[in-house]
Structure formats: structure tokens, C-alpha cells
Specification:
The structure holds two protein chains of two kinds. By secondary structure, chain A is of the alpha+beta class. Chain A has two domains: 73 residues, Ubiquitin-like (UB roll) (Roll); 76 residues, DNA polymerase, domain 1, CATH 1.10.150. Helices cover 38% and strands 14% of the residues of chain A. Chain A contains five helices and five strands. In chain A, helix 2 crosses helix 3 and helix 2 crosses helix 5. Chain B folds into three domains: 219 residues, Aldehyde Oxidoreductase, domain 4, CATH 3.30.365; 163 residues, Aldehyde oxidase/xanthine dehydrogenase, molybdopterin binding domain (Aldehyde Oxidoreductase, domain 4); 305 residues, Aldehyde Oxidoreductase, domain 4, CATH 3.30.365. Helix content of chain B is 28%, strand content 22%. Chain B is built from 20 helices and 28 strands. In chain B, a hairpin with a 5-residue loop joins strand 18 and strand 19. In chain B, helix 3 packs parallel to helix 5 and helix 16 runs parallel beside helix 20. Classes of the chains: A alpha+beta, B alpha+beta. At the A-B interface, helix 1, helix 2, helix 3, helix 4 and helix 5 of A face helix 8 and helix 19 of B.
């Protein structure tokens, strides 16, 4: 039995405590913005925040989130950093297929929350775990700088 | 058939008079199905739409009593709410087709960009065939080429109906009415109306002939060619509401996770499903056979959710019979390829007398190239939802082969194609994988649903592949081997070129064979080499096609993925051998091809070709160029690289010039060049699928490394201004990057890399 909070709403899980948080969020809660890409923490498409820290939900058992607060892409806009990142993503038309972008945005938001003016090297470190097969990386980098500027 | 030849690189240019872009009867073109366009969507979810939110209830046709919204065509609908809905017959998989089609329609409609949304069309050949192919297919970088006239005429027709309605209502001459940003106006009387206000009256106007409507003069464009058309899918893809197949949950749906046979052709010998069935939530275990060798045999575990289904799948204890399966290892394959390359093959092109030209050349370059199998590895692993019912079959999927898949599933289930209804979702990447020549993964899902039905399980079946299922599922870019010899005369002129290519055929054994394979030569194996525009007086390209039961498929830019690499690195080495500058050497061979020269000269100018690269301490630096035409689009790229003491390669910057005719959405074109470059770079640096006794070795991104953010070069894209008909941009950015980087590496180190991927060859 696991009680947790997702985007400010209390959720309860009675099943397998080893079920990855990803599948609880997607299949049980029904929030599908967080994506399944690899299942082994190699691509970052499943990135959510656990008490503000970016984690790969595909390898995080739901039980780890007991008593914790989870933020997904669906909750990103309720925060000013999240909203700024989304706005920059739209301003620069970052997306192509879009499947990885929830995870990209959640990683970018986590970066900007602890580092208001990230350098290219900071972006490299924070974002290198998020794969985009459409290779939108140049725009992702530009959008993070743009969001940082808009928040300054 | 024209485009199928043109995919293979053998056909006429798109503007050839024999291939009208719109070849539909007036009725077929404009009448469409009236209010029924939305009515054919069945099932519990909306297809993908640029205003996607959560799954919406199934739309239904407007009741007869209420006046229908204006919907005289299958492509544009105007609601009384002032919304303009553009219906996309093409899959949005990231390439920006929703935005492109909407731009074309909105331009002629004089709609305001903000009032336009896009929704996906169902599979329906009668309305949505690709005008260059005759079937509804998204592929070959043809969406804009085949739609630009169709969508513009649809927009112009609707505009004239809105104007007609206003003229009638206001009792003024139609010729005095203007339309701008979604507002219809009559200056003299001061009357204005929105599209929404006119929608009902306009629906009663006669539908004009598509050939009679007047299209705008390009000088009057307000959307086409501007930056005023941001992507229609940006919002939904940044707030988590965009709906991919992976995100759909139908009422009563069961998730199927599959234990696939380890190799193509393997059959199930023994199954122990007791542990799987003991898992709470596992509903059924469904063994299934292959269907004509199109997909692997497997055992599907059906469960209420993905995790339980995967747990069940992993708990199966299975034994496979691989005695009749594909059993080769990569070393065996290469050995076969090399043996064949030593013998004459089927002649793809023969010009002049190559034997005589290469008998005693003043100088020559001889080279062999090895290209590996490549997985597409889109971010969304393959999946498909199939519901079999008394009325037929409903499919939810993101797919490029809209009506061919419809036909394939109908054949498998023994029903009529029109009984197979396909709801199109966004695809989380594809790169050709969702354009399955044999409908493999769609058929697998249908096979599972069919087998489940015989066991009494009649729920919607959502087949979900894991990353490993996807990466080991075949349908790879074929491995290819090339053996090339080219000679120069004493003056450094290229006189002869002989090339032998060995590999599997993409088209053979598929419904596309009749169009794409001619005299034993699959055009996709030699596109980019047999049809080279370089002025080579004596040219011979031969092909050996080898047949394996492990299937191959088109992969972003198809044959050009390997032929451009061979052609452009050879030309570079020939220039070096002739003692000429690589750009000057190419100019000399492309004198009769102004569009090639256009991108070549533009990229040379913008990259500072001929000026020294700034030195970096401890690093060797080099600049390399490549120019290549694919899918009737011309692209040249210059790569700047650095190599450090231990052989680590960094691609610092890429300058790209592209000529795709009329630039409909310049920013989308730039994005596709950026993405095409990054996609190609991943392949040449890192990617290969290898086989161990028929089993694919790589299974996830740890063993098949994608390009990551730190490896992405700075990219500058420059567009050639052009009034030629628009051509595609999804694929043509990819072919030049490999050879441009290889040529830069050669400039920096003297080393010519002819075996892909690069891997650690620079460290050796």
C-alpha cells in the first residue's frame, strides 16, 4: 500500500509495490504525458520530479515515492519555472515528434530551479541523459538559455 | 507509380507534365463526404489533433435537423465557432506535415493562423491517396510535393464559397469583397463577417471547380515562406496532452506484451506459462504463429496494464526451434557480401566503356565500403491497438502506410478493406519504421487479437513492444557492401567509375516490388549512385541482391544512406588524388546541374570554405564537404571537426544549404535539416545492429547508442530562394552528413573511414 502525491493530488496504490512509478502514473492514474522509451533509465523520456529532484520513473519502484510529492509534465505549468520553460519551448518550436519532450522539459525545469543561469557545460551535464532521436538538441539548448533569460 | 520510381531515384522530376499533381475528378476532389468526414471515425478516442487534450468522445455527424458546418471538402472544415480545421491525410511523426498542410490551406483561405487546427484523416484511398502514389502513404518525403496544389486549391475553393455567401447576404459584387486574417470585408459598405458567421450560408454555396479557382500569386503570400506559422503541435507536445498510440486506453482494453521468437523463422517448440498465469492481473496467454514470415512468432501475455503484462511475459518459460530460422552471424554475412562483390552483378547503369576507361588510368582510387544494419529506434517503441468486432476491425496507430496497412489487415482477417478503420495518432518518431512495407507490426497486433478472439477474449488489444522488442524486430536499414574503382586522366579529369553494390533488397517480396524492382535491380539499392548527376563519361554500377528471411526496410533517406557516403567520399579522394580543391572538383563535374551548384556554392560561401579553420591546441582540425540530391531536394553540407590526441572525434559545426523549391515553412525546413543531420550523425558515429547466429545482439540504447546533446554540433542552415515546386525535407538532410564528416576527418588526419560506424577507428 502506497500513498503519494502527484501534481498536488493524493494518490493511492494497492498493487505491486515494485511496479515502476512510470506505469503507476500512466496506466493507473491515467496521466500519459510521462513517456515510456527504454525501461532502463537510458533515455530520460520518463523523467518526473520526486520532491523536486529529477528521477527516471521507469526504474523507480512506486514504493519509493511513498509519502513523497511527484510532479509530472501535466503539473509543470503550475510553477513559474515550468511555465517559462514551456513558453520557451513553444517560442523556439523545439519539438518534432514530441515523444521525448516531456522528459526533456522536466530535466530542464529541474536544472533551472537550482541554477538560474546555466552555462553550456551545466546544460550538458543536466541534459545528456535525455535522448531525442529527432535530434532537437540545438533548440533544447537554446530554449533553456531563453527560459533562463525570461526568468531573470 | 511515378513516385515509387522517384523514391527509387529513377523517375521524372515532380513537375514533369505527365504527372499532374492533382489528378482527381472535380467531384472526387471537392465533394468529399460532406459532413461524414468526422463520422467515419469510430471507436472511443479522437485521432490526433493539434488541439489535443485528453481523449474526447467519438465525434458524430451533425444531426440532419441542424445546419451542418461548412464542410464541402475532405480537407477543410469551418465551424460556426470560427474554427478552421484542416484535415491531414499524412502522418505527423515530427516532420511538421500538420503545420505544412495547414499553411497551404490557410494561405489560400486567408485564414488567421490562430484559428486553424489540424486533425488526422482516417485511412481512405478515395479521398486521401497520396497524389503521387495512388495510395494513402506518408513517405518518400512527398507530403508537401503531393499536397501543395491540392491543399491550396481546397483552400481557394472554400474561400470563394465564403465570399459567395457574403456577396449574397450583403447584395454586393463578389469581386469587391476582400478576405484577410479570417475576416471577410466589403470596404464600400463597411460590412464585415468572420468565417464562423458565414459558415452556414457558405455551406449552401455551389462548390467551385478546383481547376477554376484562382491561386494566389506568390508575391501575395502572407503565410507561405514566412516565420508566421509556428508549429501546430507545439503546445500539445509541451504540456503532455499530445496523444500517441502509447497513450490510448480504450474501454476494456488489454495490454499485450510479447515474448518474440529470438530470430526470424524460429517456431515455438514448448511453452510453460504457469508462472505467467499465476501473476495477478494476467488475463490470458496467447501463442501465435508468424504470418507469411512477415513478423516473428511469439507468445503474447494479456493483462490489465503494461507492467503486469510485462511481468507475465518475463515469467514465460519458452523453447524455440531455430532450425529453419535466419541463423547467420555478422561475419558470415560480410563474407558472403565480399564473395559476391568479386563477381559481375546485375547492371543498374552502363554508360560508355568503363573497362576501357579504367584499363590504364593515369591515377585511380580503389575502395571497399562496409555499412551495417541499422535500427530506426524511434523514441516511441512500436505499438498498435486492434479491436475486432462483428462490423470489422478498428485500429489505433500512428502509421505511414495508411491504406496499404488497411488492406493487409483486411487480408489477414478475411474482411473487406473498408471494414478496417484506422484512427491515426501522432507517432513518436518513425524514420521509416512505421512505413512497414509488409505491415509487420500492425499485422502482428491483428494476429494477436485474432488469436485472442478464438480463445474468447474479445477486448481491444493494445500491443506494446518494449525497447528490446523494437530494436530486435528486424526491418533494419540493410547492411551494404560497395566495391568501387574510379580513374582520372593525366589532366585530373574523372574518366571512369565502376561500382558493385551488395545487399538485401528493400522492395523485393513486398507489394512495392512491381514498381521498384526492374530487371533484377531494386532502385532503392542504387539510388544516389546509378543516377548520379556527376559528369562521368564511363559509368557502370552493378548490384547483387542477396535474400535473407530477416526483413529490411527503408530508413530515413533509404538507399542514399549508403550511396551518398560512397559517392561523396570517393569524389573527395579523387579530388585529392587529382590535386584539386574538393569544391572546385565538384563544380567541374556538375556544370550542367544548376541546383546542385546552387547549394554547393552557397554552402562554400557560408562556411568560409578555403579559409583556415581556427587552430585548437592539442587537436587536429578539418573541414569536409558533401553535396547530394535525394527526393528531388538538393543539400550540401560542410562539417568542421576536431580530433584530440586519443582519437576522440568532435563534430563542432555543420553548415547546410538546402534547395527544396518553394519554402513553405522555412523554420520547419531548418528543423528538418538539423534533425536529419543529427540522425545521420548518430548512425555514422555509433550505430550498428550485429547478429550472433541469427539473433540481433543490440537491444537498448546502452548497446545502440543514440546521439546525445553533448554530441550535437552547432548547425547553420541556409535556404536557396526558389520558385520551383516544393519538394520534401524529412529525409534529404541526412545523406550528406556522413561523407561531410568523413571528408573532414580525412582532411584532419589523412585517414579515410570506409567501415561504418566510425566507432573507435580513430583511436587505433
Amino acid at each position: 500500500m502506497t500513498d503519494l502525491t502527484i501534481n498536488g493530488v493524493k494518490q493511492h496504490h494497492d498493487g505491486d509495490p515494485n511496479m515502476p512509478l512510470l506505469w503507476f502514473i500512466r496506466d493507473e492514474v491515467g496521466m500519459t504525458g510521462t513517456k515510456f522509451g527504454c525501461g532502463v533509465a537510458q533515455c530520460g523520456a520518463c523523467t518526473v520530479h520526486l520532491d523536486g529532484q529529477p528521477i527516471r520513473s521507469c526504474v523507480t519502484p512506486v514504493s519509493v515515492a511513498a509519502g513523497k510529492s511527484i510532479t509530472t509534465i501535466e503539473g509543470a505549468a503550475s510553477d513559474k519555472v515550468g511555465a517559462a520553460v514551456q513558453a520557451s519551448w513553444r517560442k523556439l518550436d523545439v519539438v518534432q515528434c514530441g515523444y521525448c519532450q516531456s522528459g526533456q522539459i522536466m530535466s530542464a525545469v529541474a536544472l533551472l530551479k537550482k541554477n538560474k543561469k546555466p552555462s553550456d557545460a551545466d546544460i550538458d551535464t543536466a541534459m545528456n541523459g535525455n535522448v531525442c532521436r529527432c535530434a532537437t538538441y540545438a533548440r533544447i539548448r537554446a530554449a533553456i538559455h531563453d527560459a533562463a533569460a525570461s526568468l531573470a | 507509380m511515378g513516385i515509387l520510381n522517384r523514391i527509387a531515384g529513377n523517375g521524372p522530376a515532380p513537375s514533369a507534365p505527365s504527372e499532374p499533381l492533382v489528378n482527381l475528378s472535380r467531384r472526387g476532389f471537392l465533394q468529399g463526404s460532406g459532413g461524414l468526414v468526422v463520422g467515419v471515425f469510430l471507436g472511443g478516442v479522437a485521432g490526433c489533433s493539434s488541439k489535443d487534450a485528453a481523449p474526447a468522445p467519438a465525434p458524430t455527424p451533425a444531426p440532419a435537423a441542424a445546419p451542418p458546418p461548412i464542410e464541402p471538402t475532405a480537407f477543410i472544415r469551418i465551424g460556426t465557432d470560427n474554427q478552421v480545421t484542416v484535415i491531414s491525410k499524412h502522418l505527423e511523426m515530427g516532420q511538421g506535415t500538420f503545420t505544412g498542410l495547414a499553411t497551404l490551406a490557410a494561405e489560400e483561405l486567408d485564414a488567421d493562423w490562430s484559428q486553424v487546427t489540424v486533425e488526422a484523416a482516417p485511412a481512405d484511398n478515395s479521398k486521401y491517396a497520396n497524389t503521387l502514389m495512388g495510395v494513402q502513404v506518408t513517405g518518400g518525403s512527398t507530403a508537401m510535393a503531393n499536397s501543395h496544389d491540392q491543399m491550396r486549391r481546397a483552400g481557394a475553393a472554400i474561400r470563394s464559397m465564403l465570399v459567395g455567401a457574403a456577396a449574397a447576404e450583403w447584395q454586393v459584387p463578389a469581386g469587391e469583397i476582400t478576405v484577410s486574417k479570417g475576416v471577410v470585408s466589403h470596404a464600400a459598405s463597411g460590412k464585415t463577417a468572420t468565417f464562423g458567421q458565414l459558415a452556414e450560408a457558405a455551406a449552401k454555396q455551389p462548390v467551385p471547380s478546383p481547376t477554376a479557382v484562382k491561386l494566389k500569386d506568390p508575391k501575395d503570400f502572407v503565410l507561405i515562406g514566412t516565420l508566421g506559422t509556428p508549429r501546430k503541435d507545439s503546445k500539445a507536445k509541451t504540456d503532455g496532452t499530445a496523444m500517441f498510440t502509447q497513450d490510448v486506453k480504450l474501454d476494456g482494453q488489454l495490454v499485450a506484451v510479447v515474448a518474440h521468437a529470438p530470430s526470424f523463422g524460429a517456431t515455438l517448440k514448448k511453452v510453460d506459462d504457469s508462472k505467467a498465469k499465476a501473476i495477478a492481473g494476467v488475463t490470458a496467454v496467447i501463442p501465435f504463429e508468424s504470418y507469411n514470415g512477415i513478423f516473428r512468432a511469439g507468445v503474447a501475455v494479456l493483462a490489465k496494464n503494461t507492467w503486469v503484462a510485462k511481468q507475465g511475459r518475463d515469467a514465460l518459460v519458452l523453447e524455440w526451434d531455430e532450425s529453419k530460422a535466419f541463423q547467420l552471424s555478422s561475419a558470415d554475412i560480410l563474407k558472403e557480401f565480399k564473395e559476391l562483390a568479386a563477381k559481375p552483378g546485375a547492371v543498374a547503369i552502363k554508360r560508355g566503356d568503363v573497362a576501357a576507361a579504367l584499363k590504364e588510368p593515369a591515377k585511380q582510387v580503389v575502395a571497399e565500403y562496409e555499412f551495417p544494419y541499422l535500427a530506426h529506434a524511434p523514441m516511441e517503441p512500436l505499438n498498435c491497438i486492434v479491436t475486432i468486432s462483428d462490423s470489422g476491425c478498428d485500429i489505433v496507430n500512428g502509421e505511414q502506410m495508411h491504406t496499404p496497412d488497411q488492406g493487409s489487415v483486411a487480408a489477414l482477417l478475411g474482411i473487406k478493406p473498408e471494414q478496417v478503420r484506422i484512427k491515426q495518432m501522432y507517432a513518436g518518431g518513425s524514420f521509416g519504421r512505421r512505413a512497414s512495407s509488409k505491415s509487420d507490426y500492425v499485422l502482428e497486433a491483428a494476429q494477436i487479437a485474432k488469436a485472442a478472439a478464438t480463445q474468447g477474449v474479445k477486448a481491444p488489444i493494445k500491443m506494446v513492444w518494449t525497447r528490446e522488442d523494437d530494436m530486435r524486430g528486424g526491418y533494419y536499414r540493410p547492411a551494404m557492401f560497395h566495391s568501387v574503382r574510379a580513374g582520372l586522366d593525366a589532366g585530373g579529369k574523372l574518366t571512369g567509375w565502376q561500382q558493385r553494390t551488395v545487399g538485401q533488397s528493400i522492395a523485393k517480396g513486398t507489394p512495392f516490388e512491381a514498381f521498384m524492382v526492374k530487371d533484377g535491380v531494386d532502385g532503392t539499392s542504387v539510388e544516389g549512385s546509378a543516377d548520379t548527376r556527376y559528369d562521368i563519361p564511363n559509368l557502370q554500377v552493378e548490384l547483387h541482391t542477396i535474400e535473407y528471411s530477416m526483413p529490411v526496410l527503408w530508413w530515413r533517406s533509404v538507399g542514399h544512406t549508403h550511396t551518398a557516403y560512397v559517392m561523396e567520399t570517393m569524389i573527395d579522394e579523387l579530388a585529392q588524388t587529382a590535386g584539386q580543391d574538393p569544391v572546385a572538383f565538384r563544380r567541374g563535374l556538375l556544370e550542367k546541374h544548376p541546383r546542385h551548384l546552387g547549394v554547393l556554392n552557397l554552402v562554400a560561401e557560408k562556411s568560409g570554405w578555403g579559409t583556415p579553420l581556427p587552430a585548437v591546441a592539442g587537436k587536429k582540425r578539418g573541414r569536409g564537404i558533401a553535396v547530394h540530391e535525394s527526393f528531388n531536394t538538393y543539400v550540401a553540407e560542410v562539417a568542421e571537426v576536431s580530433i584530440d590526441a586519443d582519437g576522440t572525434l568532435t563534430v563542432d559545426r555543420v553548415v547546410c544549404a538546402v534547395d527544396c523549391g518553394l519554402a513553405i515553412n522555412p523554420d520547419v525546413i531548418k528543423a528538418q535539416m538539423e534533425g536529419g543531420i543529427g540522425f545521420g550523425l548518430a548512425a555514422i558515429l555509433h550505430s550498428e545492429i550485429t547478429f550472433e547466429k541469427g539473433r540481433p545482439v543490440q537491444g537498448n540504447f546502452d548497446s545502440y547508442p543514440p546521439l546525445r546533446l553533448t554530441e550535437m554540433p552547432k548547425i547553420d542552415v541556409h535556404l536557396v530562394a526558389s520558385a520551383e515546386p516544393p519538394t520534401g525535407v524529412g529525409e534529404p538532410g541526412t545523406p550528406p552528413i556522413g561523407p561531410a564528416v568523413a571528408n573532414a576527418v580525412a582532411a584532419a588526419t589523412g585517414k579515410r573511414i570506409r567501415k561504418l560506424p566510425f566507432g573507435d577507428q580513430l583511436s587505433a
